[in-house]
Every structure is written in structure tokens, then in C-alpha cells.
């Protein structure tokens, strides 16, 4: 039998003693050097999910843009202030008939593999987007010819005049100029460079593996000068709680997602963390659409009554803590074509009741006039469910019973966009800066016109605005559209959504803070360590 | 023995085929159009049509099923809609991260659950036994995602110090420092997985040890003057652990699913995070691939459990 007292095994007391010491040693490490501490030159950015590829030209991936806006250049690009500026294009000329655009490219621009960026790359990129019929093809449909005049000049010919052409080429997602020498002769959707890009942007990809982050390092040959922040990490947080904890602990510098209001309030009080509420880009409007196939909602008096019954300022206070703006018009108030006179019906319970009585839905003995469904989806802006809850209370005051349903986008799209299985639908989508984007929602053939609203005058005005010789002429058309939409009310704008930018005070000069006319959104070229 | 193993493998195959078919039907019949989920909110009808054709979503369901089964038979799990890469490669990339979490959580949960079970059995019907029972019931009742969020709130936000998400600090460390950093990042997710596992092992061990303590061989061991610790751990626990082996295989599925949720909460870059994105984007081949690989792992674990059990207790293979 083993004599346990003489056993060479560690004695229990010794084990506890050394164990405690070891724990303390590891613990000491935990509380200081092991905690994420951003290198002075490294910026750590939290995004919701890992990008699936790093080429936005052919397929859609919501996370891709955050990274690729630092890896690639575009021909023209939207700056953070909403203006369109040249990127690879140093300048351009438009022919008198506005059908031919001649772009002159910056000279001396290099791909990260050392080869020069030339007009051939621009031509190949545009033709490949058209050939692949990818995500951005619709915006290029009007191009009938694109050719390289010389190494640094590209000529694009349009089938018809398009006042939104530059805005479309500058759109946030897609249209990055790709290296023809890497992609030519291959299947561009399956090219290995989609995961290891060769770009001409301010940064170059260093690592994009199966881990929890992407690393970018500065491109020393960037044609506008190397950025001050030498290294960027994008870290993936599918759930906001971990990101909130990390930014409070100092392990993160910027969150590109908006946590719930309660978490945001906590972050506003956290030392070393700031929260700026900024106009998002693309600018988003939260709105509800009325299904014209529902015979109750097909009556404009009912739609106007619902608009009168919804207190949009209250929604802004309850759901967003007053950080956003209650919408008064169909277009965003930041739009260059905004019509401040084309106001939607304001909050007025008496008027709502009167219109509903007039429409033939009397409220007898305080009973419900009719029931309708509210269908939303879990969007990045958040608030679909909460807005529904508030609207349910507000509409109950005029005798309308609202039942709520919220889905993920896949189910929502099937119910709303395919089957039209809804009464009142919630949505949040880009409404700018290009005013022509609104046609997607209210033109007869608009992809997001789930209401099935159709007004020949609106369709005609969109075409006329697109073909207008200049923006002043186009503006009149867009303003008339806003007036018609406010009258007929196929949809009701609720909130002009603004993005809460949550960041550590270790860096400054983000795109919404300084030089917003020189840098696009999500580009860290001008960011400086504090 | 070989005949026994052969018969178990033979029985496992139809189970796998059934699981694959069930997965296929569930994912395809679930509401939600994959084309819309992939194309995004502002996609044009033309782009949606391109996606439907490219991914053969316009083919009849049975034709898609037979094509999928044909691929599976050759070891091809298909091509991810959203990543545009082979599914198997995507999953294999994430296996080490998930395995690290599952194994660490399972070991910690098994050890703590078993020790707590022995302790409760030894102090049967005392205040300690009652307290441990209540704690186990509480842990068993808590949904794992809630437990994970609670961990973040307490240890990362209120107490501070422990990282709440990810697998490494940034910039990543090298060599031994990397391992230390990984260990620190593993604390909260591993504890979450382990706490989810503990109640099962606790309850099982407690009841087995209570039974074993009544056995004749325990009385004999005490009678010959062995120390109580030796009686308990060397004789009593060894016999009482048999049911734990049976449960280990079954638990793998539960721990695996728990780890997948834990990964999403703690931003752990494993199969769970991969699946989270795949479900949101209706990336059907990837979702099915993850389900199939998970099912294979669980079936293999149960198979190994059966074989281990038959080695430990020969009556099983002759029964």
C-alpha cells in the first residue's frame, strides 16, 4: 500500500500556496499588459461582422466597405460632407450635350504591387462590372462606351443625359478601380485577389485570416501622401456588448455600429470615450409604407389620418433619446433639393379622428375602427420593434389597432418585397445624397416601392430630373415630386436617422470631424493620433 | 469487438443521411429568400435574378436535394453563397478556434461538475448539498447567451480587466506572450461553456456516488482501514464515473451548440460566429455544411462513447 504521507506528489497545502501565487501572477498580467492596449500608431476599429471578401464591385457584403474604402481608389467619390470629388480623376470635362465625360487621371499613381495605375484599369473595371451584371451594374446601364484615350485619360459616353451620373459612380458601395493586370482573363468573382487585394488606396492589407481581425498597414506610396496612422485593425463583434466593454476598457478606438440607447448613455459618461451624433452617409430615413392593396389603406384619407395620429417627435424621444430628427418631409432636410414647403401631415389627433370618420370608419362607443399589421425587420439602425410599440400606443388613441411583427431581413424581404404580405411596413434606407435615389421608393418600377404606388407624373418628373441640363432645373422637378408624395402619402417619413460615432479620445480628425470635404466616409487617411 | 464496432458504424451511417436530409429540408423550407438576404436591401430585380440563377435557387427543391446528396457523398460540402469559397475550407479554418473553446469548456465543466457532485454526495442532505443543488439548478436554468452577457457585465465592465471579446489583443503578441494572451481571452468564454456543462455532471456524479457509497465494496474498503479520501476517489468515484462516460458523447452536441452561441457573444472567431453570419445571410450551403459537420462530430463522439463503454464494461458488447 502506498504511504500517502511520503508520496512525492505535491502536498495539498503546497499546491494551494503555489496555485495562489501562479493565479496572482497571471492575474497581475491580466490586469495590465495583457489587456488590449492600442499601439500609439495603431487604430482599432470594431465592426459587426467579418467581411467575406474585399472586392465590392460584383457582390454585396455590408462589412466589406469599411475596409475597402481604405484599400482602393475610385474614379470619383462621395466625400463625407456629401459632395462628389475626384479620386483617381484629377479633373473632368463634360461635353456640351452632357453625353461625354472625359476624365483626366492623376499621374504617378501606383498599385501596391508597384505597377502604374492607368486608364486601362478604369476601362477594364467599368466593363467588368457591366459584364458580370453585378451589384452596381444598374448604375452603369446608361454607359454605351468607355475607352482609354491615353494612359491617363478615360472617355465615357452615355446613351442619354444623366445629371446623377457622377453621383452614381461615386456611390458608397462598389465602383472601386481594380488592377486589370491582376484580374484580366480570370473569373473576377473568384479571383484570389478578392481576399488579398492589390489596391491603390492609403492602406495595404497585411492580414485577413480566419482570426478575429483584419490588419492594414500604411501604403507609403499613396499618391496623396502616406496617412499618419500607420496601422489599422478591424475587429469583429457580432454582439454589441463585447464591443462596449472593450471600448470602455480602452481596447477599442472606434465603433462602427450603434448600441442601444442605454449603452450609448453609459458610454457618453465614460472617461476617454466620446460620442458624436453625425449625419450618416449614405443618409438614412426611417419610414413606414402603406400597402395600396389593402382597401382601407388605399384611401388617402386613412393614410393622412394615420400620419396625423403619429407623433414623430415622441418617437424620436422615446426610441432614440432625441438624438435624431423627427422627419417633416419625404426627402431628408440635408438634401440639396429639399422642399421645406412639402410637409407631411403634422401631429393632430382631432384631424385624424375627423378624417377616419369621413372615410367611413366611425368609432362607436370607443371601439376599434379597424386593425392593421405593422411589419419591420432588424436593421442596423435599430428601432423597428420599439417604433412599432410607440406607434401602437399612438394609433390606439384614434381607434386603430396595430399588431406588430418583426423579422430578420431575409423573411422580411420575402413577405414585403415579394409577396406584399403586409399592411404597414417599417424600413430604413438610404435617401441621399443623390436625389435620384428616392425613385427607388416611389417610382412605379422602383425596387423598394412595395406600396405599389404609381403616379405617372412622379415617374415623368424623375426622368426629367435625371436628364436635366443642370441641378437647378433638376431641383424644381425633385421639389414637385416631394409635394406630390406629401399629398398622396404612399409612405410616411418618421425619422432622419443620424449615426452615433463612438470613439476613444486617442485619435482625432475622423471624417465627420475635420476636412469632411476631402475624405470619404470610413477612410482613415486624415486621422491623427492625439 | 471488431464486429461490435462494425455494427455501430453501420448504424451511424443512416443516422447521418437522415440528419443531412433533415438539415436540407429545414434550411430550404424556412421562411426567407436567400437571394434577397445575399443581395441586400437595395438590390435591383436584375441583380436578384442573377443571384438566383448563379446559385441555382430557381431549380426544384428535389433536384437541389439530389444534387446536394451527390456532392456530400464525394465529400464536397458545396460552395458558400456569400463567401464564394468552398464550405469545407471555411469550416476547417474555424475548427481550431471552436475546438479550443469546446475542449477547454468541456474539461473545466466536467472536472468542476464531478468534484462538486462528489462533494455534495459526501455531504448528502446537509446545507452544502442543498446549496450546491440550488446552484446547479440555477445554472441549468440560465440560457447560455444570458450567462455570457452576465459574464461580460460582471467581469469585463463592472470589475474590468478581463477582455470581453475576441481571441487576441491587438497588436497581436508573439510566442509565449501570445499563449498568455490567448489564455486570458479564453477565461470568460470557457467559463461560460463550463458553467453550462457543470449541472449535468454535478447531478449525475452526485446520484452515482450516493448509490456507490451504499455498496458492499465501500463498506469493505472502510473496514480494512483505507482513508476516506482513498475510498471516495479511488474506489467509489471510479465506479460511479461510468454514467459520466455515457453522457460525455451526448453532451458534446450540447456543449458544441452552447459554444456556438458563446462564440457569437464573445466575438470568438470560430464556427459559431461563422454560422451566425451564415444564418443571417441565408447562406444555405454554409449553414448546411456546419450542421452536417456538427452532426458528424456528434455521431462520432457517440460512437467513441459506445466503444469506450464496451471496453470498460464488456457486458455491453455481449448484451
Automatic annotation (TrEMBL), chain A:
The record's section on Gene3D superfamilies has:
Dipeptide-binding Protein, Domain 1 (3.90.76.10), Dipeptide-binding Protein, Domain 3 (3.10.105.10), Periplasmic binding protein-like II (3.40.190.10)
Q: Name one Pfam family in it.
A: SBP_bac_5
Q: Where mainly located?
A: periplasm
Q: Which domain of life is it from?
A: Bacteria
Q: Which GO molecular function terms does the record list?
A: peptide transmembrane transporter activity
> Which InterPro entries does the protein's record reference?
Peptide/Ni-bd, SBP_5, SBP_5_dom, TAT_signal, TAT_signal_bac_arc
Where in or outside the cell is it found? Periplasm
Q: Which UniProt keywords are given for this protein, alphabetically ordered?
A: Signal, Transport
What sequence ranges are listed for the domain Solute-binding protein family?
84-446
A Gene Ontology BP annotation from the UniProt entry: peptide transport
A GO CC annotation given for this chain: ATP-binding cassette (ABC) transporter complex
Instruction: Give the UniProt family note.
Output: Belongs to the bacterial solute-binding protein 5 family.
Protein name, UniProt field:
Twin-arginine translocation signal domain-containing protein
Automatic annotation (TrEMBL), chain B:
Transmembrane regions listed in the UniProt entry: 99-120, 132-158, 178-198, 241-266, 286-312
Q: Mind telling me which CDD domains this protein's record contains? A: TM_PBP2
- Give the record's GO CC terms: plasma membrane
Q: How does it sit in the membrane?
A: Multi-pass membrane protein
The record's Gene Ontology biological-process terms are: transmembrane transport
Q: Which family does it belong to?
A: Belongs to the binding-protein-dependent transport system permease family.
Q: What is this protein called?
A: ABC transporter permease
Q: Which organism is it from?
A: Microvirga alba
Taxonomic classification, please?
Bacteria, Pseudomonadati, Pseudomonadota, Alphaproteobacteria, Hyphomicrobiales
Amino acid at each position: 500500500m502506498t504511504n500517502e504521507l511520503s508520496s512525492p506528489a505535491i502536498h495539498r497545502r503546497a499546491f494551494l500556496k503555489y496555485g495562489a501565487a501562479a493565479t496572482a501572477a497571471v492575474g497581475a498580467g491580466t490586469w495590465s499588459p495583457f489587456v488590449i492596449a492600442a499601439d500609439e500608431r495603431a487604430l482599432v476599429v470594431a465592426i459587426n461582422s467579418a467581411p467575406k471578401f474585399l472586392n465590392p464591385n460584383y457582390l454585396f457584403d455590408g462589412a466589406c466597405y469599411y475596409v475597402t474604402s481604405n484599400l482602393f481608389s475610385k474614379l470619383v467619390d462621395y466625400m463625407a460632407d456629401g459632395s462628389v470629388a475626384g479620386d483617381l480623376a484629377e479633373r473632368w470635362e463634360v461635353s456640351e450635350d452632357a453625353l461625354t465625360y472625359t476624365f483626366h487621371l492623376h499621374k504617378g499613381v501606383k498599385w501596391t504591387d508597384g505597377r502604374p495605375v492607368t486608364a486601362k484599369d478604369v476601362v477594364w473595371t467599368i466593363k467588368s462590372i457591366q459584364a458580370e451584371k453585378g451589384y452596381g451594374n444598374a448604375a452603369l446601364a446608361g454607359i454605351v462606351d468607355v475607352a482609354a484615350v491615353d494612359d491617363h485619360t478615360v472617355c465615357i459616353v452615355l446613351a442619354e443625359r444623366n445629371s446623377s451620373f457622377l453621383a452614381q459612380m461615386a456611390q458608397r458601395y462598389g465602383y472601386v478601380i481594380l488592377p486589370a493586370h491582376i484580374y484580366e482573363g480570370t473569373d473576377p468573382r473568384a479571383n484570389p485577389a478578392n481576399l488579398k487585394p492589390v489596391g491603390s488606396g492609403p492602406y495595404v492589407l497585411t492580414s485577413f485570416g480566419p482570426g478575429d481581425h483584419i490588419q492594414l498597414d500604411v501604403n507609403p506610396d499613396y499618391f496623396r501622401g502616406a496617412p499618419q496612422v500607420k496601422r489599422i485593425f478591424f475587429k469583429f463583434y457580432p454582439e454589441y456588448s463585447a464591443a462596449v466593454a472593450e471600448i470602455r476598457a480602452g481596447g477599442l478606438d472606434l465603433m462602427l455600429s450603434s448600441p442601444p440607447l442605454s449603452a450609448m448613455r453609459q458610454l457618453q459618461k465614460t472617461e476617454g470615450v466620446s460620442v458624436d451624433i453625425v449625419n450618416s452617409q449614405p443618409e438614412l430615413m426611417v419610414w413606414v409604407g402603406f400597402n395600396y392593396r389593402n382597401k382601407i389603406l388605399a384611401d388617402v384619407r386613412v393614410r393622412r389620418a394615420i400620419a396625423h395620429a403619429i407623433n414623430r417627435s415622441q418617437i424620436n424621444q422615446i426610441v432614440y433619446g432625441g438624438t435624431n430628427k423627427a422627419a417633416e418631409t419625404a426627402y431628408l432636410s440635408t438634401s440639396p433639393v429639399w422642399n421645406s414647403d412639402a410637409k407631411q401631415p403634422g401631429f393632430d389627433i382631432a384631424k385624424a379622428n375627423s378624417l377616419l370618420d369621413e372615410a367611413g370608419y366611425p368609432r362607436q362607443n370607443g371601439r376599434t375602427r379597424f386593425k392593421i399589421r405593422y411589419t419591420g425587420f432588424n436593421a442596423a439602425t435599430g428601432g423597428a420593434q420599439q417604433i412599432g410599440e410607440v406607434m401602437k400606443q399612438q394609433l390606439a388613441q384614434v381607434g386603430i389597432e396595430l399588431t406588430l411583427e418583426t423579422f430578420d431581413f431575409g423573411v422580411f424581404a420575402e413577405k414585403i418585397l415579394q409577396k406584399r404580405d403586409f399592411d404597414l411596413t417599417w424600413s430604413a434606407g438610404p435617401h441621399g445624397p443623390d436625389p435620384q435615389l428616392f425613385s427607388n421608393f416611389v417610382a412605379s418600377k422602383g425596387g423598394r416601392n412595395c406600396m405599389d404606388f404609381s403616379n405617372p407624373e412622379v415617374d415623368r418628373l424623375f426622368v426629367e430630373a435625371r436628364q436635366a441640363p443642370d441641378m437647378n432645373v433638376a431641383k424644381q422637378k425633385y421639389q414637385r415630386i416631394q409635394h406630390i408624395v406629401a399629398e398622396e402619402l404612399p409612405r410616411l417619413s418618421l425619422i432622419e436617422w443620424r449615426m452615433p460615432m463612438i470613439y476613444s479620445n486617442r485619435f482625432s480628425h475622423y471624417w465627420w470631424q475635420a476636412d469632411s470635404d476631402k475624405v470619404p466616409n470610413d477612410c482613415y487617411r486624415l486621422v491623427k493620433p492625439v | 469487438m471488431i464486429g461490435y464496432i462494425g455494427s455501430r458504424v453501420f448504424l451511424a451511417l443512416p443516422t447521418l443521411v437522415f440528419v443531412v436530409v433533415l438539415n436540407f429540408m429545414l434550411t430550404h423550407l424556412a421562411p426567407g429568400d436567400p437571394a434577397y438576404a445575399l443581395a441586400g436591401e437595395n438590390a435591383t430585380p436584375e441583380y436578384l435574378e442573377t443571384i438566383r440563377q448563379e446559385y441555382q435557387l430557381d431549380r426544384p427543391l428535389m433536384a437541389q436535394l439530389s444534387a446536394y446528396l451527390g456532392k456530400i457523398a464525394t465529400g464536397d460540402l458545396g460552395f458558400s453563397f456569400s463567401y464564394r469559397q468552398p464550405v469545407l475550407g471555411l469550416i476547417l479554418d474555424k475548427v481550431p478556434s471552436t475546438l479550443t473553446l469546446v475542449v477547454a469548456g468541456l474539461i473545466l465543466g466536467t472536472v468542476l461538475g464531478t468534484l462538486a457532485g462528489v462533494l455534495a454526495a459526501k455531504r448528502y442532505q446537509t446545507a452544502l448539498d442543498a446549496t450546491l443543488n440550488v446552484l446547479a439548478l440555477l445554472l441549468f436554468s440560465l440560457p447560455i447567451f444570458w450567462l455570457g452577457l452576465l459574464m461580460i457585465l460582471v467581469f469585463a465592465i463592472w470589475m474590468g480587466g478581463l477582455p470581453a471579446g475576441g481571441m487576441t489583443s491587438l497588436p497581436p503578441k508573439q510566442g509565449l506572450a501570445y499563449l498568455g494572451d490567448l489564455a486570458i481571452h479564453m477565461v470568460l468564454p470557457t467559463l461560460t461553456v463550463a458553467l453550462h456543462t457543470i449541472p449535468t455532471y454535478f447531478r449525475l456524479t452526485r446520484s452515482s456516488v450516493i448509490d456507490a457509497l451504499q455498496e458492499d465494496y465501500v463498506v469493505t474498503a472502510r473496514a480494512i482501514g483505507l482513508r476516506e479520501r482513498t475510498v471516495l476517489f479511488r474506489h467509489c468515484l471510479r465506479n460511479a464515473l461510468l454514467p459520466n462516460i455515457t453522457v460525455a458523447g451526448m453532451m458534446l452536441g450540447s456543449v458544441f451548440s452552447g459554444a456556438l452561441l458563446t462564440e457569437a457573444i464573445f466575438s470568438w472567431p470560430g464556427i459559431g460566429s461563422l454560422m451566425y453570419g451564415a444564418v443571417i445571410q441565408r447562406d444555405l450551403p454554409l449553414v448546411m455544411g456546419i450542421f452536417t459537420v456538427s452532426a458528424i462530430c456528434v455521431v462520432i463522439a457517440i460512437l467513441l462513447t459506445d466503444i469506450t463503454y464496451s471496453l470498460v464494461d464488456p457486458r455491453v458488447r455481449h448484451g
